[in-house]
Design goal:
The chain has five helices and 20 strands. It is of the alpha+beta class. The strands form three sheets. Strands 1, 2, 11, 12, 13, 14, 15, 16, 17, 18, 19 and 20 form a twelve-stranded antiparallel sheet that branches. A four-stranded antiparallel sheet has the order 3-10-8-5, with no helix packed on it.
Length: about 400
């Protein structure tokens, strides 16, 4: 016998589900080359950064060496340009011309009073004036040469510096290509078979990948609920955040609990259902993508309802009945109306009230009006037999 009471009962629903991998990655080559080494086995677990393939490195090592040589030559040219040898020579020539001009000015200033006092010949003064004019012209020419040489030197420095930057970029590109010639796992997970064998050609724009990697932790599960069920879940957001149970194909329950992460953005008009997506921790990689099972989710919280074990209910055509025991320990037959099933119990809508005592076992040994000696029934006492259980 079990005394029934009103309680808040979570209603669990089960939906067909299938596992899948959310972030499956296709491994592709970034550079062209022939595979020298293949360093994994199909179905092996790999970690991010593990080496999967090694291409023929020699062309890329040669490209790096050439880029380093070009960069060294450009850096030497830049250093030479920065020393400004030609500009220093032009400035030295300007200094010589300026010194000659100063001497010509001094000679001219010394001869002018001597010619006025007829202490020196006019021809000497004319020669000094011509030398002065020549010196001035030479200084202007030397100054122009300095300006031109300075501009040319600055242009050469800028041009060579730009070439150095370009050579550095070329070296970096060559080094990246050399790195890409060793193909590594971008993520961790289970790796598939190789689609290109050792000696096969890898191209950066190949239509098919070299292999694929499937991440398994967490594993994702998709299932569909009816539109009405989804609306009821939305009315109680806490239900969408409640933990999920996953029932596997062998009827066992997966030990890890999952959570609903996403819902698709539209209802399927053909089926009237909406896809929900949940994630489950899968640290042991027990689950693989593509497995089928059932998701058990709390879809409703029924308040102040009465639960009766299924084994206590008798079904005769469309009528459901239970045996109850009154205060005088007399058996009575009650017609009831049930609603949803909760585990091994049924929610009773009509026919029982809190405090009623229901016979769970031994119904075949009792009849209405009989007096019994009831004993309490517990879920662990199913092996018991006898009237009034």
């Amino acid at each position: 016998m079990k005394q029934v009471d009103a309680a808040d009962v979570p209603v669990m629903s089960e939906y067909p589900a299938q596992t899948y991998a959310r972030n499956t990655v296709e491994v592709r080559g970034r550079v062209d080359g022939y595979i020298d080494k293949w360093l994994f086995h199909p179905g092996q677990e790999v970690h991010a950064g593990d080496v999967l393939y090694v291409l023929d490195l020699r062309p890329y090592e040669a490209a790096v060496a050439q880029a380093k040589g070009n960069l060294s030559q450009s850096e030497a040219d830049l250093e030479f340009a920065r020393k400004q040898v030609a500009l220093l020579q032009a400035e030295a020539n300007l200094a010589v011309m300026q010194a000659n001009l100063v001497k010509a000015q001094q000679d001219n200033e010394r001869l002018m009073p001597l010619v006025k006092s007829e202490a020196a010949a006019q021809q000497e003064l004319d020669t000094a004036v011509a030398a002065l004019r020549s010196g001035e012209a030479n200084v202007r020419a030397a100054q122009a040469n300095v300006d031109q040489t300075r501009l040319s030197t600055e242009t050469q420095i800028s041009s060579t510096a730009g070439r150095v930057d370009a050579q550095k970029a070329a070296l970096r590109t060559a080094e990246l290509n050399l790195e890409y010639a060793t193909i590594r796992a971008p993520i961790g997970g289970l790796i598939g078979d190789t689609l290109v064998p050792v000696g096969g050609l890898v191209t950066a724009n190949a239509p098919q990948p070299l292999t694929t990697i499937v991440p398994l932790d967490p594993i994702w599960v998709r299932f569909k609920v009816t539109e009405s069920r989804y609306l009821s879940l939305k009315k109680n957001p806490t239900l969408l955040q409640s933990p999920l149970a996953l029932i596997l194909a062998d009827a066992s329950e997966f030990p890890q609990k999952g959570r609903i992460e996403n819902t698709l953005n539209q209802v399927d008009p053909k089926t009237g259902t909406l896809e929900l997506q949940a994630s489950f921790p899968n640290p042991q990689h027990t689950l693989l993508p593509g497995q089928f099972g059932k998701v058990r989710v709390e879809t409703e919280l029924r308040r102040n309802v009465i639960l009766v074990p299924q084994r206590a209910i008798q079904q005769l055509q469309s009528e459901q009945t239970v045996f109850t025991v009154n205060a005088s320990n007399i058996v009575e037959l009650r017609a009831i109306t049930t609603d949803e099933r909760v585990g091994e119990d049924w929610i009773v809508q009509q026919g029982l009230k809190p405090g009623d005592r229901v016979i769970v076992e031994g119904q075949l040994k009792v009849r209405p009006g009989a007096r019994v000696a009831p004993t309490p029934w517990h879920a662990s006492s199913r092996a018991r037999t006898g009237a009034g259980g």
